[in-house]
Amino acid sequence: MATIATEKKIRGGSFLIEDRTPGEVFIPEEFTDEQRQIGQTTEEFIAGEVVPRAEELEHKKEGLMPELLRKAAEIGLLGADVPEAYGGLGLDKVSTTLIAEKVARYASFAVTHGGHHGIGTLPIAYFGTEAQKKKYLPKLASGELISCYCLSEAEAGSDALAAKARADLTPDGKHYVLNGQKMWITNGGFADVFIVFAKVGGEKFSCFIVEKATPGFSIGPEEKKMGIKGSSTVPIFFDNAKIPAENLLHEVGRGHIVAFNILNVGRFKLAAYCTGGCKNSLAGAVKYALERKAFGKAIAEFGLIQHKLGEMAIATYAAESMIYRTAGMIDSALHGVNLSAADAPQHAMKALEEFAVECSINKVYASEAVDYCVDEFVQILGGYGYHQDYPAERAYRDARINRIFEGTNEINRLLITAQLFKRAMKGELPLMAAAKKVADELMSAAPAAAPAAGDGLAAEIAGVTASKKTFLFAAGVAVQRYMDKLADEQEIAGGLADIVMDVYAMESALLRTRKLLERKGAQGAALPVAATRVFVADGLDRVEKHAKTVLAASASGDTLRAQLALLRRLLKREPVDTVALRRQVARAALDAQRYPF
Questions:
Q1: How many CB atoms lie within 10 A of CB 196?
Q2: From the candidates 24, 358, 406, 544, which is the catalytic residue?
Q3: Does the CA dihedral 361-371-324-185 come out positive or negative?
Q4: 205: three-class secondary structure by DSSP
Q5: What homologous superfamily is domain 256-408 in, according to CATH?
């Protein structure tokens, strides 16, 4: 298992008020031989078994997707997160993240895989009784049973606790009678096990394990979707369906604990799927750009095409840096835990809960990065990008759901800010003290310069430090203005979340690059340096824009003018030739004919 050797306990969200060192982060270049083999095996399976049958899957050939899931189970892809004690592999989070990234080669299979292996299996692994785990987990890991997660309803999507599905305990206490319906159920058309949320007595939000053969339970027709057409998405219905009382998952009234912890997992894994999608789109765009001739030369030679390719590669570099940094932190939190043991899932759940902010950040950033990449994939192919005979068209449609899955990006932006302030109020994260310190610093004198790193990235280090201070400054002003009503000011909360995401993304890319500089030297790490300099330069522009929005919504007149002057001083920086640096990255992608890092 890959972990980062550090004695310091890293808390979720602490990156905003603490400086990390390169030695404290895990980077993809540190994959073990075993992890590389896991990634290669997954990639070969998708390329050999899934991609050749994509058209059949798109047209929902009956029985094909379950058949491929069972084949995936034979090489461990359905049991990676399940402890060996229950028939799984008990892999570390870096390895399972790598599996998710590689599975993304065909989006509909990735969605199906996540619906079963992630949110469909882990509720039992995390919250099941010993009897429930022994009954279901081995068969879920082997593919004998296929599972799905049933939370959304027609009028309860992001507002999951508004669910109307109801469960009532029978007088003899032996069954719960379920009534209601669920919507948008991935894998629902062929699943055997359904993780269903309903309110006991119409009030206590709870979770149940429902088997397909249950009388009174029925499955609706496949939905007609924009994309991910190869995956199954159906409504399900309960009409006095009797569920054995022992199939209650966790405790009555504690279903929200199950739902929200599982969504943390889903968000993190979705970011890995999206990162794989970014790489796939870049590879397709590069291939076409090299082949397509216009005005007497390959379009890959044109500057605006190189801009697109470079930007796709740089956005992917940042996403990849973030997800493996996060996976490394989770694995570090699990250091010393036997992942093959029966109690491993409970430890994993607590680690993921600790990094809930980072899970939401990863989800939002990566889903928006893949949307950018698929959009430019279409654009580079031009008219062919709009044609169903070329892969860009399907990639474009398939990617759009990611900003809705696992909590919309709007909800996740609000969660990022809310979770940070909640931690601050509980004394787990001294944000307000840090905000006051920054405000005092800005009012007294020019901001202290960040120490030079000596590795050619001093300006970028200073920029990330200034961005952290910018968040603290803007957050302090917003809190002072709105106090406990800040959550109602969604545009401001969203603006603060955007700053937080840029900080985490910039710092993740920067720490990875600095680590590579330590290992490879300036020449060996020239490409990561170029990507990082572009990403931080552009990120600082975004941070400044969002901070101005927050400040202007929180103050006015002379006070606002004074605050904006402080902001300009805080984010003062020299221009960077991003054109030349982005071209350097684009050329590397063209030479490699794929993602170049």
A1: 29
A2: 406
A3: positive
A4: strand
A5: Butyryl-CoA Dehydrogenase, subunit A, domain 3 (1.20.140.10)
Residue 557 neighbours by CB distance under 10 Å: 7
CA 258, chain centre distance (Å): 19
Distance CA 91, CA 535 (A): 32
Give the whole-angstrom CA distance, residue 445 versus residue 459.
20
- Mean pLDDT value of segment 195-223: 97
Q: Which residues contact 77 (CB under 8 A, 6 or more apart)?
A: 42, 45, 99, 103, 113, 117
Residues 259, 262, 268, CA angle at the centre, nearest 5°? 140
Q: What stretch(es) of the chain map to CATH 1.10.540.10? A: 14-146
Dihedral pair phi/psi, residue 375, rounded to 5°: -65, -45
CATH of 410-592, one of 3.40.50.10140, 3.60.110.10, 1.20.140.10, 3.30.420.40: 1.20.140.10
Q: Which of 461, 464, 441 is nearest to 451 (CA)?
A: 461
Q: Which of helix, strand or coil describes residue 163?
A: coil
- Calculated CA dihedral for residues 231, 236, 242, 247, nearest 10 degrees: 40
What is the reported pTM?
A: 0.95
Mean pLDDT for the chain?
A: 95
Cross-strand pairs, 422: none
Q: Which CATH architecture does the domain made up of 148-253 adopt?
A: Beta Barrel (2.40)
Per-residue pLDDT tens digits for 139-162: 999 999 999 999 999 887 777 788
User: Which amino acid, 525?
Assistant: A
Q: Does residue 406 have an active-site annotation? A: yes
Token digits for 333?
Answer: 């939190």
